[in-house]
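Support request from a user on the community tier.

User writes: "When I paste my structure tokens into the form, the page sometimes reloads and wipes my input. The last time it worked, I copied everything first. Here is what I submitted, just in case something in the input itself triggers the reload:"
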């Protein structure tokens, strides 16, 4: 069985198990549609985020509910950004970062200030 790297992020809260929980799965290219849905169901979360490649942005990310993909979602976007920052996948320069996410709805510019 393949292993996947993921972060369980509490969006909108500095507290563990506070805010809106979201699993962010890294290198999710090879997860099938059915596997992505199954993970959402297994976590019992509202949504999960899956990082995939992108030719249009710095990172691609797809958001799933237990029964379908959705084009855009707020707390999974925040969870994805937090995961990328925590893993140093986005460099902070002078406590700021700017990059682009390609979501199902299009390319989303992100600006972060720590």
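"...and here is what came back when it finally went through:"
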């Amino acid at each position: 069985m393949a292993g996947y790297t993921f972060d369980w992020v509490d969006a909108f809260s500095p507290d563990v198990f506070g805010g809106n929980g979201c699993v962010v799965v890294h290198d999710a290219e090879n997860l099938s549609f059915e596997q992505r849905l199954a993970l959402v169901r297994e976590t019992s979360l509202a949504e999960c985020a899956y990082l995939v490649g992108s030719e249009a942005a710095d990172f691609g990310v797809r958001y799933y509910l237990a029964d379908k993909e959705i084009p855009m979602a707020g707390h999974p976007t925040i969870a994805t950004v937090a995961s990328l920052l925590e893993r140093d996948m986005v460099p902070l320069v002078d406590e700021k970062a700017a990059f682009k996410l390609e979501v199902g709805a299009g390319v989303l510019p992100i600006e972060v200030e720590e």
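Agent notes: The reload is a front-end session timeout and is unrelated to the input. The chain is about 20% helix and 35% strand. The radius of gyration is 13 Å. Escalated to web team.
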